[in-house]
C-alpha cells in the first residue's frame, strides 16, 4: 500500500506544472463584507512587520535575551539548542506537491517551515548571517518549487504550517531585507505567488469550529503579508461574525464554554490558542481583538483552564459546534477525554491578558502547570509556535 501511495504522489508531482497554472481545488471568491471596527481601507494601512511579531515585539525579545532578563534568557538558551534553530539544519524538501489526508507527505514542509521560522528569530536576536541564509533559502526553495497543496486536511496544513511559513517570511522581508527569489515586476514567480494561490485562496472557504478558526487566523497573516485589504477585512469580519467559526459561535458569552467542550478537551484548548494568535496579529495591526466582546477570549480561556485543572464548570448541551454530527455530537455532557493541561496555548493567553491588565487566575494556573512540566518548549507539530516565554512574554 505504501508503494502505491508513493507512486501516486510521484504522478501528482509530474503533473504539478499543469496544476499550478490552473485554479487550485479549493478556491472561493473573497466575499465583500460589511465594514467592521479594525478594518483596512488601503494597502498602505498595513503595519510591517505585523504578524505574530511587530518590530517592537522583536526588539523586546532581543533586548531581554541580550540583557539576561528572565524568562527570555533561559527560554532562549533552550531554543537556541533546538535542532530547528540551527543554521546547519538540513532541509527535508522542497517537493512540488504536498498532501495532508489519506495520502500524506506534508511532514517535510512542516519541519522546514519551523526551521525557517526558528532561524528567522535566531537571526534577529544574534544578527548571525548564517541564520539569515538558512531561513531565506528555505523560503525560496519552497516558494520556487511548490506547485500544489492537496488532501482532505489541506486546510489544517495551510492554516498551521502555512502560517508559520509566512511569519518567517514577514520577519526576513521587513527586518532582514530579503527579496523573494524569482520576484519580478511582471509577476508569475516567487514566494508570494505560491502564498496567494496555494495558501491564501485555499483558505477563503471557512469551515466549522476549529477548522474554520485555523483558516481565519492564517488568512489574517496571509492578507497582511500580501497587503490584501479585501482578504484581511473578510478574515477580521469572520473572526467576529462567522456563524460556525467566529469567536461568538465557538465560545459561549455567558460562561466561556467552548463549542468543542463536549467533544474533547484537546480541541477546546487548541481553538483558544488559534483565536489568541489571530488576536495577536490584529493587535499588531493597531486594533485590540483580545478584549473583543467583553473579553470573550479570556472568558473562554478561564473556563477551559479551570475545567482542565479539575475544577467544576457549568455545561450547556445546547451550545455546540456546527456539524457536530461529523464528530459524534452533539454531546449531553462535558467531555473528560484528554482532560488536563496538555496543550501549548497558555503562554500566549496569559501574556495577552497581562498586556491588557486583565486578571486571569485560572489561565495563570494553567501556565504554571505547564511550566512545572518544563514549559512550552520543543514541539514536532505546528499547532502552536510554542516557546511562549521567548516569543510572547511581557511584563505586567
TrEMBL record:
- Signal peptide stretch: 1-18
| Highest taxon, organism lineage | Eukaryota
Q: Which residues form a coiled coil?
A: none
GO molecular-function terms, A-Z? lyase activity
Q: Which InterPro entries match?
A: Chondroitin_lyas
Q: What is this protein called?
A: Chondroitin AC/alginate lyase
Organism encoding this protein: Glarea lozoyensis (strain ATCC 20868 / MF5171)
Ordered alphabetically, the record's keywords are: Lyase, Signal
Amino acid at each position: 500500500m505504501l508503494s502505491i501511495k508513493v507512486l501516486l504522489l510521484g504522478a501528482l508531482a509530474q503533473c504539478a506544472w499543469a496544476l499550478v497554472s490552473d485554479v487550485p481545488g479549493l478556491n472561493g471568491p473573497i466575499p465583500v463584507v460589511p465594514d467592521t471596527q479594525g478594518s483596512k481601507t488601503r494597502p498602505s494601512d498595513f503595519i510591517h512587520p505585523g504578524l505574530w511579531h511587530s518590530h517592537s515585539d522583536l526588539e523586546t525579545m532581543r533586548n531581554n535575551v541580550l540583557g539576561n532578563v528572565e524568562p527570555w534568557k533561559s527560554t532562549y538558551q533552550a531554543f537556541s539548542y533546538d535542532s530547528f534553530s540551527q543554521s546547519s539544519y538540513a532541509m527535508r524538501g522542497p517537493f512540488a506537491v504536498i498532501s495532508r489526508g489519506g495520502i500524506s507527505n506534508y511532514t517535510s514542509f512542516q519541519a522546514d517551515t519551523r526551521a525557517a521560522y526558528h532561524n528567522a528569530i535566531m537571526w534577529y536576536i544574534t544578527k548571525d548571517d548564517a541564520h539569515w541564509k538558512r531561513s531565506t533559502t528555505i523560503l525560496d526553495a519552497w516558494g520556487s518549487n511548490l506547485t500544489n497543496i492537496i488532501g482532505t486536511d489541506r486546510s489544517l496544513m495551510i492554516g498551521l504550517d502555512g502560517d508559520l511559513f509566512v511569519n518567517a517570511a514577514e520577519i526576513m522581508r521587513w527586518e532582514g531585507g530579503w527579496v523573494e527569489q524569482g520576484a519580478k515586476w511582471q509577476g508569475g514567480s516567487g514566494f508570494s505567488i505560491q502564498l496567494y494561490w496555494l495558501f491564501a485562496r485555499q483558505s477563503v472557504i471557512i469551515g466549522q469550529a476549529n477548522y474554520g478558526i485555523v483558516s481565519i487566523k492564517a488568512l489574517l497573516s496571509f492578507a497582511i503579508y500580501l497587503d490584501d485589504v479585501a482578504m484581511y477585512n473578510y478574515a477580521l469580519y469572520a473572526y467576529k461574525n462567522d456563524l460556525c467559526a467566529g469567536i461568538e459561535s465557538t465560545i459561549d458569552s455567558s460562561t466561556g464554554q467552548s463549542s468543542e467542550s463536549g467533544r474533547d478537551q484537546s480541541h477546546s484548548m487548541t481553538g483558544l490558542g488559534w483565536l489568541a494568535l489571530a488576536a495577536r496579529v490584529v493587535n499588531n495591526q493597531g486594533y485590540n481583538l483580545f478584549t473583543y466582546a467583553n473579553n470573550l477570549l479570556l472568558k473562554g480561556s478561564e473556563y477551559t483552564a479551570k475545567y482542565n485543572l479539575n475544577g467544576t464548570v457549568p455545561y450547556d448541551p445546547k451550545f455546540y459546534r456546527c456539524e457536530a454530527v461529523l464528530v459524534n455530537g452533539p454531546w449531553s455532557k462535558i467531555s473528560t477525554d484528554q482532560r488536563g493541561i496538555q496543550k501549548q496555548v497558555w503562554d500566549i493567553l496569559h501574556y495577552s491578558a497581562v498586556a491588557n491588565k486583565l486578571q486571569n487566575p485560572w489561565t495563570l494556573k494553567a501556565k504554571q502547570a505547564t511550566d512545572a512540566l518544563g514549559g512550552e518548549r520543543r514541539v514536532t507539530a505546528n499547532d502552536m509556535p510554542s516557546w511562549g516565554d521567548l516569543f510572547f512574554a511581557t511584563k505586567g
